[in-house]
Design a protein that fits this description.
The chain has 395 residues and is α/β, with parallel strands linked by helices. The chain is built from 14 helices and 13 strands. The protein folds into two domains: 198 residues, Rossmann fold, CATH 3.40.50; 181 residues, Rossmann fold. The strands form two sheets. The protein has a seven-stranded parallel β-sheet, sandwiched between helices. Strands 10-9-8-11-12-13 form a six-stranded parallel β-sheet, with helices on both faces. Strand 11, helix 11 and strand 12 form a beta-alpha-beta unit.
């Protein structure tokens, strides 16, 4: 079976790690003649980093499509659409599996024109919704409906993603499957609270460390965390933030913290390689995830695998892993008082943190292994590739 995966760019991120793990896992399976990944260009010097090196050295694994970029550029996008169409005609894949917004739209339309037998799209996060203005929302929704009409099957990284697209009138229930985004469980299951690592980052043995793993970018919720920080420090004098990730808003965030007189309460790690994340999670006491736009944030199950309680906005797929009172606390978006209460209550109760961490670790162990994800995708491919399988939504 020939399979082509398509993603807009291989920056350091959950969707990218998911896609690479899927491609590598399928290449190790018998019965797959060719599994290739097409991506737009990335630059290791970007604040978001690059994961190209994970696959660039493998023969026939990665192809770079120069015109595939995140920004909307009609002429370049049109040329990229035709380049993808010609590639699909030449390679004749059985399956084209797309990821992310730009690659998802152009890839599915080109694959449909090339009459690829099976077109699949993974919804890693919503491309439309209340997080953007009305004009942008209409445009992205229209594009998703257009591409959705050419799609045989959708994979949601959370049930919430499937519901959101169905509620928007995209596809039918039989066209959707939820497959959680697997990751290297062992690295997080073995993460330990290393005091030496804490000291290297300027964190004391008695500090209450609130961690956050996210790009320093819009809609990730850093501003809301900074808003609650003064009250958190007042209630918990030993509280500090550990922000894992880089991005274009780093200078703005640091300036805000200095103006608040709280710069010394926050540790910025900058961009780190994914392999370094488990050790950083190990020194956290709790992880917060306050993104306003996410499919199912990998940071939540990763922290849970390390035995950490989590606090998250009750949005998108977060409630599927952050279970109120069992593995952590859910708060409503922009609920500063609710966020403060959740963090203070966890800071004051080590026993609650241990109990939530234990529950979370066991649940994640059974649902988020990379092997589980790859097996589910393989089974989906085999089912859809069967000529007797029904086809929906394609001309």
């Amino acid at each position: 079976m020939r399979v082509i995966h398509l993603i807009t760019r291989l920056i350091v991120g959950g969707a990218q790690e998911n896609t690479i793990a899927t491609v590598l896992g399928l290449r190790a399976k018998p019965g797959f003649e060719q599994v290739e990944l097409i991506a737009g260009p990335t630059d290791p010097a970007w604040p978001e980093g690059s994961l190209e090196s994970r696959v660039s050295g493998l023969p026939g694994c990665l192809s770079i499509e120069p015109g595939l970029v995140r920004q909307i550029a009609p002429m370049r996008d049109w040329a990229t659409y035709w380049a993808l169409y010609r590639r699909f005609l030449r390679q004749r894949p059985m399956i084209v599996h797309t990821h992310s917004g730009k690659a998802g739209i152009l890839g599915r339309l080109a694959a449909s024109r090339a009459r690829v037998p099976c077109i699949i799209h993974t919804i890693h996060g919503p491309s439309f919704g209340a997080f953007q203005n009305k004009l942008s929302n209409r445009a992205f929704l229209a594009a998703e409906r257009l591409a959705g009409a050419k799609t045989h099957h959708f994979v949601g990284v959370a049930d919430a993603m499937c519901r959101q697209y169905l509620d928007a009138g995209i596809g039918q229930p039989s066209q959707y499957s939820t497959i959680y985004s697997g990751f290297d469980l062992d690295a997080f299951l073995n993460a330990k609270p290393c005091q030496k690592r804490r000291a290297e980052l300027g964190l004391g043995p008695n500090d209450f460390v609130v961690g956050k793993i996210a790009r320093l970018f819009d809609l990730k919720g850093h501003d809301q965390l900074f808003e609650v920080l003064p009250a958190l420090v007042k209630a918990i004098p030993q509280a500090k933030l550990l922000l894992v990730g880089g991005g274009p808003l780093a200078d703005r965030f640091e300036a805000r913290l200095r103006s608040m007189g709280l710069r010394d309460r926050v540790v910025f790690t900058g961009l780190v390689r994914p392999e370094a994340v488990p050790d950083l999670v190990g020194i956290m006491d709790v992880l917060v995830h306050l993104s306003f736009r996410e499919g199912l944030p990998r940071a939540l199950p990763q922290a849970m695998a390390a035995g950490k309680p989590v606090v998250a906005y009750a949005l998108d797929g977060a409630p599927e892993v952050c279970r109120q009172g069992e593995t952590g606390h859910l708060v409503q978006p922009n609920d500063v008082k609710g966020l403060l209460h959740a963090l203070v209550s966890l800071a004051k109760s080590p026993e609650t943190r241990r109990s939530m961490g234990s529950h979370g670790r066991e649940w994640v162990r059974n649902h988020f292994a990379t092997e589980t994800m790859v097996q589910a995708i393989e089974e989906l491919y085999l089912r859809l590739a069967n000529p007797s399988s029904s086809r929906h939504g394609v001309d």
